[in-house]
Amino acid sequence: MREFYPVYICLWSTACVVAIVLYVKDRKTYAISQPEYRRFIFKPWKIITFLIAATGLTLVAPYTGDPTWDYCDSIVMSVLTFFTAPWAVGVAYRTCRGVLPKRQAYVAACVWLFSVSWFYDTYILLRDGEYTPLWLPNLFASSALYAFAGLLWNLDWRPHRGTIFAFMEDGRPNPVQGRTFHRIVVPALVFMILVFLMVLFFLVDFPVKPPAWLSK
Predict the structure, then answer these.
(1) What is the pLDDT of residues 24-49, one digit of tens each?
(2) Residue 100 DSSP code
(3) By mean pLDDT, which of 16-25, 116-125, 137-146, 197-206 is the weakest?
(4) b/e burial code for range 114-123 (CB count within 10 A of at least 16 → b)
(5) Which one, of 41, 21, 28, lies nearest residue 110 by Cα?
(6) pTM surpassing 0.85?
């Protein structure tokens, strides 16, 4: 069903254009646009864990057994994840709680999907001249990594609540001043181990195949 790909590209391209319009119209209300968000993600422990994870994913790219996974897409997708996952995961939570309008959830969903799949799809299309049949397995696998990363980099500590996810606090992003990593090291290690196990899953060359209906 090769005819599926042009339709799919058209659909997600349109979704992205709509998301851009919604964001530009009201960008000041999006937490990701605020200086506080940059201060929130550019904490030393988050930068260090990002560099470790990004370096690891990039170095193992040639050994995963997946010809579509190379240095370029691993680096770009890692950077997109670092900058957007904490925000997107938080928006998902706060929209479900009725705190944020659904249009922000739509924009966050498009950013999520572009970071984990649509950039990758476009890059492989331009590199190889055809749409990768592995787009669907990649979407699910990369989304899991994206969610774990978003939860990891949302870990925070508050004097009145202890260890929490930052998106649970009103008025986020609201970075706490001072060093807090020693207070959240245990839950942070849990998410780091989960990410490591997923990367290990790819390293053992698990036979991921595209759905049969997309291979015809």
Answers:
(1) 999 999 999 999 999 999 999 999 99
(2) S
(3) 197-206
(4) bbbbbebbbb
(5) 21
(6) yes
**Backbone phi, psi, residue 2, to 5°:** -60, -25
Residue 85 near residue 153, CB atoms below 8 Å = yes
β-pairing verdict for 155-158 and 162-165: antiparallel
In a 3-state reduction of DSSP, which class is residue 158?
strand
Summary mean pLDDT of the chain: 86
> Please, what's the b/e burial string for 134-153 (b: 16 or more CB within 10 A of its CB; e: otherwise)?
bbebbbebbeebbbbbbbbb
The closest of 8, 7, 30 to 19, measured between CA atoms, is 30
For 104, half-sphere exposure in the C-beta direction (CA atoms, 13 angstrom radius) is 23
Q: What's at 203, amino acid-wise?
A: L
How far apart CA 144 and CA 133 sit, in angstroms, is: 19
C-beta of residue 157 within 8 angstroms of C-beta of residue 163: yes
